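Tokenised fold entry reproduced for absentees:

. . .
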Amino acid sequence: MNTLHCLVAVALACTALAGPLHAQTAAPAQAASAAAPPRIKPAPRHLTPTEARNSATTPGDLRPEEPVIPQISIPLGRKPPGPAPAPKAPGRSDKVATPGIDDAAARCRAQASSQARAACAEQGR
């Protein structure tokens, strides 16, 4: 009997809920037909190639009045040749000490034997 009571209760609940729904759907149907939805604009159609060619503008007509001012200028390519550097005087100047690596001392230290290094160091002094 419990199953029968449950089925009857479900049937009554569905009937009770369905009644107000039927009454409400009739009224908006009449209002919807009275007030038609606004018409939506159709999507623009694409131009055929001939129409696109005929409606094209020349590139010179679309240029801005004021040219664009670049914020950064990055030179690409070769630089124009500048003045030639002055030739250096041949020989070594012992009086003037130049900062950096002494080439003669580096050549002496690069010798293979200790005798050759000593002879080079004596020759440079």
